[in-house]
Specification:
Layout lengths: L6 H7 L3 H8 L17 H10 L22 H4 L1 H11 L20 H18 L3 H18 L5 H16 L30
Helix pairs in contact: 6-7, 7-8
Length: 199
C-alpha cells in the first residue's frame, strides 16, 4: 500500500488509511488458471459464493505481437476457470448492460487455431530450429492468423477469442464486457501523468 497510486486516498484518510484499506480489501491466495481458482478451503469457497457479487477480470497480456498459444495466452486461458468458479455457486442477478454486445468473429474456430499452432510447433521442433527462431516464427504465425480474420494484431485477436469463449460458455451467467477505447496516463489522480507499467 506504499505505491504512489494510493496518494489521494492516503491524503483523504490520513492516519486511518491502513485501517480503511484493511476493512475494504481481503486478499485471498489462489491461481486464476486452476479449478475453483486454486482455493482449496471449501468453507472459504462457500463464503466467496455467498458474498461475492461481481468478478472483475482484468488479467491480460497486452503485447501486440504475442505468440498465439490459445491454451496459455492469458486473454483466452483465464476465462474458463473464472466462468466455472462463478457458475459453481454465485447468486445470479441480471447483468448491468453497457456498451457493445459480445461480438463473434465469423468462421473462427478456437479448437482449429489450437491445432494450427500445435502443428506449427511440432514442425518447427522436428526441424530442430533454435528457441529464438521458434519464438519469431510463432509471433509471425500469430500476426498472420489475426490478420486472416481481420484483426490488426494478436492482442485484439486473442481478446476476441476470449470473448467468444465467454459467449459459448457463460450459460445463464450475467456478463458485461467493457472495452476502454484507449489507455493513457491520468490527468490529475492519483497524480498527473500516472500510468501503470510501460506503455
Amino acid at each position: 500500500m506504499i505505491s504512489k497510486v494510493f496518494k489521494v486516498l492516503r491524503e483523504k484518510r490520513g492516519a486511518g488509511f491502513e485501517e480503511f484499506v484493511l476493512e475494504k480489501i481481503v486478499p485471498i491466495a489462489g491461481y486464476t488458471t486452476c479449478e475453483n481458482l486454486g482455493i482449496e478451503d471449501s468453507d472459504l469457497r462457500d463464503e466467496l459464493w455467498r458474498e461475492v457479487d461481481i468478478i472483475v477480470n482484468t488479467a491480460a497480456t497486452i503485447k501486440f505481437d504475442e505468440r498465439v498459444f490459445p491454451w496459455s495466452n492469458k486473454n483466452i486461458s483465464l476465462i474458463v476457470p473464472q466462468l466455472m468458479f462463478a457458475e459453481s455457486g454465485l447468486v445470479l442477478e441480471k447483468a448491468f448492460e453497457m456498451g457493445e454486445t459480445l461480438n463473434d468473429t465469423l468462421d473462427l474456430d478456437i479448437e482449429h487455431e489450437r491445432k494450427v499452432v500445435r502443428e506449427t510447433l511440432d514442425d518447427l521442433q522436428a526441424q530442430g530450429v533454435t528457441k529464438e527462431f521458434e519464438r519469431t516464427a510463432t509471433k509471425e504465425l500469430g500476426l498472420q492468423r489475426a490478420r486472416q480474420y481481420g484483426w490488426p494484431n494478436t492482442y485484439v485477436f486473442t481478446k476476441a477469442m476470449g470473448e467468444m469463449l465467454i459467449g459459448l460458455l457463460r450459460g445463464d451467467l450475467p456478463v458485461t464486457i467493457l472495452r476502454p477505447s484507449i489507455i493513457t496516463s491520468t490527468i490529475r489522480e492519483p497524480f498527473p501523468r500516472w500510468t501503470e507499467g510501460i506503455r
